[in-house]
């Protein structure tokens, strides 16, 4: 077990390159099995979620190889092997194996997924979609069994706008007979990225990026090459870090349009931001003003950036209210921030942040991926050294985190936990 040590107070300066999007990659890798020949995925982030998914593909007979940030998947010999718990539980996105295997084999047996503990993360809308396509779905001893004689296109109205359900239904429907219409679909850029890959394979998909997606099933899908879009959440994390501590920071290899809601809020706070074609320049200000944030489905403010944003608000003048309408329990970072001197109250699905508080280095624990990102930014801002455990969550989603922060002038390093510390972390 390791901890990240962050010595605070160093201004950030320079350029950081953003990697491929985690939340695309975790759907693109399972999608590759739908093809009948080799799929090459470029700009793949080197993160543990991708490694886990690649190992699941190997478990069902795919051949996976890497060359730098390119992954090649040869799905020629895949078989519908059950994937019970174990590694499936390590991440939420293992649920994309359900849609991909159902689409490919008309059957699948997959353990219930894991992922960040953000409160309940139901998959009823995914199941509703699979059933509408003709699958019989049962939950037996903690695993979901899907079986269909035939998949037939259907009209599916999502009761909640869900990224996961939209993608999973697309994966299951691309080879179904006839037309599938997903109504009230999510519009996140990662969904468009998955549809782009499927279209390159030969799928017929229209309307992605709107709330009605139409899919005309095809019999076969072929191999192709695809490059993943930049990670808007990783980019947002560095942008928020720069808004807190940046003298002059350039966040490069991004799609600024994907970050509009964040940019608008940061400008409202007084952060200087210039957006170019594929980069954003950020300069912090000593006089930041508080704002209120409400997370919403895309293009609203991303729930994944809510936790890092909470930290920035501890520095601003006034009181900011952060309301998470997607995950109402996504506030586990708040107790840890309080240990560092933050003045934050959680009421229902909102956090009230009283600003202009100086943070102090402390021993804190990352309870989930973006809580970890938030604590790292807090560490960069704090006086003294912050020790962050729970880094396995952060490693699920941030490629070369230390290297990138060091390039910007931060002072961060990892240390192994002593046996005593490891015991304490396990029992806390
Ligand atoms: C819309 C939204 O902001 N989605 C975010 C959500 O995606 P993620 O894929 O985790 O969640 P969904 O988009 O699927 O779910 C959105 C909401 O719908 C609910 N739900 C979902 C599926 C279902 O079958 N039943 C159901 O009730 C969820 O509990 C949640 O409140 O978290 C990801 C990781 O933090 C983010 O990258 C996504 O941008
Ligand atoms: C919560 C996240 O990941 P996951 O849905 O994979 O747990 C995230 O990307 O912020």
Q: Layout of SSEs?
A:
Layout: E1 2-7, E2 12-17, H1 22-31, E3 39-42, H2 48-59, E4 63-67, E5 70-74, H3 96-105, E6 107-111, H4 124-132, E7 136-140, E8 143-147, E9 155-157, H5 163-173, E10 179-183, H6 189-201, E11 204-206, E12 212-216, E13 225-227, H7 232-245, E14 246-252, H8 260-269, E15 272-275, E16 279-283, E17 293-295, H9 306-313, E18 319-324, H10 333-339, E19 343-347, E20 350-354, E21 363-365, H11 369-381, E22 385-389, H12 391-394, H13 401-407, E23 411-416, H14 419-427
Phosphoenolpyruvate is lined by residues 22-23, 91-93, 115-116, 304, 369-370, 397.
Q: What are its keywords?
A:
428 residues, alpha+beta, UDP-n-acetylglucosamine1-carboxyvinyl-transferase, Chain, 2 domains, 4-stranded mixed sheet, 23 strands, 32% helix, globular, binds uridine-diphosphate-N-acetylglucosamine, binds phosphoenolpyruvate, EC 2.5.1.7
What does this molecule look like?
- This protein is an alpha+beta fold and 428 residues long.
- It has two domains: 2-19 and 230-427, UDP-n-acetylglucosamine1-carboxyvinyl-transferase, Chain, CATH 3.65.10; 22-227, Enolpyruvate transferase domain (UDP-n-acetylglucosamine1-carboxyvinyl-transferase, Chain, Alpha-beta prism).
- It has helices at 22-31, 48-59, 96-105, 124-132, 163-173, 189-201, 232-245, 260-269, 306-313, 333-339, 369-381, 391-394, 401-407, 419-427, and strands spanning 2-7, 12-17, 39-42, 63-67, 70-74, 107-111, 136-140, 143-147, 155-157, 179-183, 204-206, 212-216, 225-227, 246-252, 272-275, 279-283, 293-295, 319-324, 343-347, 350-354, 363-365, 385-389, 411-416.
- Helix 7 (232-245) packs parallel to helix 11 (369-381).
- The mean pLDDT is 96.
- Bound molecules: uridine-diphosphate-N-acetylglucosamine (UD1) and phosphoenolpyruvate.
- Residues 23, 92, 121-126, 160-165, 186, 188, 297, 302-304, 326-327 line the site of uridine-diphosphate-N-acetylglucosamine (UD1).
- It is an enzyme of class 2 (transferase).
- UDP-N-acetyl-alpha-D-glucosamine binds at residues 92, 121-125, 304, 326.
